[in-house]
Design a protein that fits this description.
With 120 residues, the chain is mainly alpha-helical. It has two domains: 60 residues, Arc Repressor Mutant, subunit A; 50 residues. The protein has six helices and three strands; from the N terminus they run H-E-H-H-E-E-H-H-H. It has a three-stranded antiparallel β-sheet. Strand 2 and strand 3 form a beta hairpin. It is elongated and about 45 Å long. The mean pLDDT is 92.
Length: 120
């Protein structure tokens, strides 16, 4: 899947859509006016950009996701690890935990994720 990059405002608007979807475009206009003080045309312009990027679909005024929020942020996380740590998950975890300690609960949760990933 192609890389999808979002600006800060696009990401906030995408989060709003994911939070409310399925949502009508007219409801999005109201929500964006409240949250961002956007006019209708701005909302529709940003919505079209997000649809063009393949995140959402606007079908007869109803907006639904093509990529869920967890899927999108998982893609972004993988891209970050690839770009920053040459794709090495252990190098990322080492950097992440270098100056902090994990609670027993966090360590157990990570062990469970590893076990689940190994089982496949």
């Amino acid at each position: 899947m192609a890389e999808i990059q979002l600006g800060v405002i696009e990401a906030r608007f995408a989060d709003m859509i994911w939070e409310h979807e399925p949502v009508t475009s007219s409801e999005l206009v109201k929500l964006a006016a409240e949250a961002f003080s956007w006019k209708r045309t701005t909302t529709h312009t940003v919505l079209k950009r997000l649809c063009d990027k393949g995140l959402f679909e606007n079908n007869k005024g109803t907006v639904t996701c093509l990529i869920s929020r967890p899927q999108f942020y998982a893609m972004q996380s993988r891209k970050f690890v690839e770009d920053t740590f040459d794709g090495s998950l252990p190098a990322f975890i080492a950097a992440f935990t270098k100056d902090s300690t994990l609670t027993p609960e966090e360590a157990a949760e990570i062990r469970k994720m590893i076990d689940d990933a190994e089982e496949g």
